[in-house]
User: What shape does this take?
Amino acid sequence: MSIQLFNTLSGTVEPLAAASGPLRMYVCGPTVYDYGHIGNFRTFLHIDVLRRTLLQQGIKLNHVMNITDVDDKIIRNAAEAGVPIGEYTKKFEQAFFEDMAWLGIQQPEHIARATEHIPEMVHLIETLEKRGYAYKAEDGSWYYRIEKFPEYGKLSKKDLEGIEQGARVDVDEYKDSASDFALWKAPKPGEQSWQTEIGAGRPGWHIECSAMAMKILGETLDLHAGGEDLMFPHHENEIAQSEGATGKPFAHHWMHVRFLLVEGRKMSKSEGNFYTLRDLLLKGYKAAAIRFLLISVPYRHQLNFTFDGLMESTNAIERLRTFHQRMKTGKWAAGSNAEISTQTAHALQEYDAALANDLNTAEARAAIFDLVRSANSAADAGQLLAENASEIVRLLERFDAVFAVLEDKDAETTRAALAWAESAGRIGEATPELLAALSLGDDEVQALVDERTQAKASRNFARADAIRRELLEKGILIEDSKDGTRWKRK
RNA sequence: GCACCGGUGGCGAAGUGGCUAACGCGCUGGUCUGCAAAACCAGUAUUCGUCGGUUCAAUUCCGACCCGGUGCUCCA
Assistant: This one.
């Protein structure tokens, strides 16, 4: 089954395929000037969903993500912090990868840093100059001559006149035309710059992606992806630079992930609804729940991120995990119930079809929940047999290869976040409930659970209930069943 | 202002020119349980922003309007 993916360039849903060999995909990564927020991660999570879906279908990938480690904001913030930009960006790059791991986002095959590819960018600018697309301005900056590239605007469906009339493009006295964009910025006093064949300075924002993508993946990519905001001007400029230099299509397929809302409003610092992953972890929300919420709404739809939604995701994951455990560890009679087997096969088919249909994660999720209900029901009625259970476990594993929420690593992740908060002087932001919840280690919990089991055996229900209440106050939930007592962290 | 996207139950959200409008969470009642929890069962939108139009038939197509978002400017 090939996957159908909306292509911004053509405006239609098309099969995503590699021209040859592994699928060459380039993703615009973060500018490492601050901690990543949930909007950033919505994009990277959906790209992770794409990545995992492709891998699940046996498609080999060559996936590159860049790290923008030099730009205006970095220069400004590093100067304010009084540290060299390399030191400044390193801290946030590390935090970014830590966040990615906490959210279960897989590492791409290649990470490309802008500052490590200055020669490639310079070379590309030289090529563009030879072909008449680039010119050097009086101050030593280099610009791209947009009028030389008539296809400019084909991705974002803009026409040049509209852009020029938009008027708010920066007016730079040295440019030939207001809409020309910077390839290379002349040095300013006190700013980091590089001495190169085209003069001293630092790269413009767009050139790094063209240079690194083409260096690592070749002149034509199968897929290029990023947040919807990057469509214009960033991706449009990448196309202009790359196609101007090679005369070949830069990327066949373009994928853009929609922005999210937070509590129905756009997320912004001034609205007071701006959250980094770390903010949420310190409030006691689980990384898995954040992941699940951010991927539950398909990537082309606007997601409304709310705290109610986070609770919903927490509970929904809990239900899936409980079900997974039940199927895995339950004692089932030998054999196979044909009806359940058919339902499982149907769920698998629906699940695969949903993801293949432009990554419809909402439908894929629904297919799984449908099966949860019918299988639980059959299990309660004693009609679910061993073979059915293992089929279902296999299906859940297939689901989890993309959704990655079944394994409970939440306590571990939250402890790591708390350790960071401690070192960053932000431990005060951790909620009392969260600190209480992690105050007991697994062994201590188990000891109390064992004591309660003893109390129950001797019908000392008062003591048993007291222990249960005490544990609940620390966020630990007790479940008695025929097969013994289980516990879990809320 | 111009362009594009969206408005579906208490909340989130899928979807389709005509079958009972998925799925999750929540809530209510029941089964089970020492009591809980988990799980299951039943209930929870005569209706898909508003008003018109096309059609035998529209939530689904068209138009206007209202609301939210995005781009035109740094932004995932």
About this structure: Residues 20-262 of chain A form a domain with the Rossmann fold fold (CATH 3.40.50.620). Residues 98 and 416 of chain A are 9 Å apart (CA to CA). Confidence is low (pLDDT under 50) at residues 165-171 of chain A.
